Amino acid sequence: MRNECNIIRDILPLYAEKMVSPDTADFVEEHMARCAECRDEYSKMKEPEQYVEDNAAAPLAELSRRLRIKRIQTVVMTAAFVIAILVSVFAVLDAPEYLPYSDKTVTAEAVGDEAMLLTFDKSATDYDYDIYKDPNGGEFYYCEVEAWTSTWDRIFSKADEPKTLTVRAKDSLPIVALYVPNDGTQSVCIARFDPNAEVKIGEYEQSACMTVLPRLVLGYYLAAAAAALTIAAVVWLLTRKKDSVRVWAERIGLYPAAYIISHFAVTGFKNSTYAVTRDLCLIVCISILLYCGFLLLHSLIRRKRETRLNK
To answer: Per residue, what are the HEC states of 121-181?
Structure first.
């Protein structure tokens, strides 16, 4: 009987898959009718296979996940640093070189009865202007204009025709056009446009012109960033043995460090600027990119340190 059971159990896998002849199937069924052990073996064979978790594969899966995260962080970090460098290069190449005033820098002429046309020299690749009423209560408006070029514009924005600006009269009041050289010298009166006079374009007293000085606000932001970095460094020194506080001090201190680097990348070692909005936007943009890259680098260094300590 035992020999017969051994034979049946060898045949059972084929029998379960219906891969035996009819005579062999009859033989197996006849045996299982009188053998409870073989019937149980056959029943177990027909049950769906239970998945057994391979505990040995878990560490490999975790290692694979960490390597994948590390690769993603490395790619993102590299991209952040590369973009920050490219924006810094653009900031340097696009730095405005303000044109000093001359008779050819900008000219004025009347266009109809309500507008004045300002035509800039071909060397001016861009300009800006601001119109405001006389702060001393005079019944006229000022129109301050400035023109500049840059290395970026000379390479990529060459224009065949000179740039022009149409200034329309407000409230039918005269407009005094001033050219701002942005070099520490006094503004120059280009012309006085009066829509109510027979001769629309005339001269204006140069004594009424003013001197526009560079803004110092970027220096204040730089000082604030330096102070924040100093505070973070002090907190780091005082909490070196408290890992959680130390890590947050490092993370927070990375942004003022990124801002300081960005400031020097955009303005060099100057704290004053005539283009506050442009320079500040570039500094903030570059500092955010650098900060993201620094955070990822910080995370990678911490992971590497933890791996070394766990060995």
So the answer is: CCCCCEEEEEEEECCCCCCCEEEEEEEEECHHHHHHCCCCCCCEEEEECCCCCCEEEEECC
